[in-house]
From TrEMBL:
This is Zf-HC2 domain-containing protein. SUPFAM superfamilies: DinB/YfiT-like putative metalloenzymes (SSF109854). Residues 54-83 form the Putative zinc-finger domain. Gene3D superfamilies: Anti-sigma factor, zinc-finger domain. The lineage of its organism: Bacteria, Bacillati, Actinomycetota, Actinomycetes, Kitasatosporales. It comes from the Bacteria. The keyword Endoplasmic reticulum does not apply. It comes from Streptomyces daliensis. The keyword Transcription applies. Residues 1-10 have a biased composition (Acidic residues). Residues 33-45 have a biased composition (Pro residues).
Amino acid sequence: MRDGTEDDAGDSVRDGTEDDAGDSVRDGGEDAPGPPEPPGPPEPPAYDHRVLKSLLGAWALAACSAEETAAIEAHLTDCATCAEEALRLRDAVGLLHPEDSLDLDPMLRSRVLEGCLGRRPARIPVPEWAAPYDAETARLDALLRDMAEEEWRAPVLLRWFDGREEATRETTVAGVIGHLRAVDGLVSAALGLDDPLAELAVQDSAGTSPLTRTEAYWRAAPAELRSPAIREPWREQGHTLLRTVSFAGAASAGIEVSYGDFALPLRDAFLDRAFECWVHAGDIADAVDYPYELPSGEHLNRMVDLAARQLPVTIAGRRRAGLAAPPRRLGAAGAPGRTLHLEVEGSGGGHWYIPLDSPGAVPSRAEEVAHVALDRMEFCQLAAGHVPPQDAAAGQDGDREAIRDVLFAAASLSRL
């Protein structure tokens, strides 16, 4: 190629067009006419003061043409009257925009995290069973973040069902957060983390009962019951719990967390703490007159499932205390006994079959003696002790005694 076409083409360029063009320029010298000058920008149209003043409203709305905008802005540098009017109109335009709410969607954090993790999974993800606790503490923290200092001293009435009747304690918004921190300390202790009661030099006599721990915390830190300063240690405690179980992985799910008269595996303790966080967030929201939503359907279903799984043991405990009817069909261990069909309606609900005669009995649809249907909010309010069991608005069919035992057991799941 170098001996033929390419060299001939190179000679053609060098010997012809390029040299001739160069000679043409050099031979012409300064006498050769240059290229014509490009036309300048057109002169902007002239507008008198009256026209420009009439255009100020359109200019404030950004509705003028480019020529009109240039003319108006040039005029504003010379005319103080029009400049003052233009400023007033621009401020007025700002008021025409709809006011945005300062309240963020409580589920925004969960949706953002879900979207991010769906595209790129976290290197150390939060365990699935801890996700409801993560979501509910984040929602409560969002509510607390925008509260005025005086709202932290607003009175809050905490209610639960003690197995026989409604029980109450009155505290403040800050006191509710102190209660959550004290009971979350049971999970911290099970994981070998710092216990907030130990930080306050509360002796072991407080025990592991949520009620005694809470009252001990309130006595040891009275100043925190009226101050937003409690928010930060509560947040940090929750973050530490989530970080710890995330690093520990699946092996930590079965660690036992003692509540005094009963214990839960860690995976269920996190669901229990998520449910209580939501319930007390609702108590706080009521105290400061703020709307608060149910947990997401997926998370609520796990909380309801935990309550349903606890019902057989709770019925048995009430029976030993003489508060529930005696069993009617006792056979070999694991044999089918009477069964109640619990239906929770709405997103997050479902169907559960509760063995009535023994916690170890196998629930059987063939042995179903009663059916109870409740709306998801009704069931949650019942399990939180906010609705007396005898007043629960339930769809009921079948054995009235079995229905009563289950409704009272559900209310007895509640505690401070």
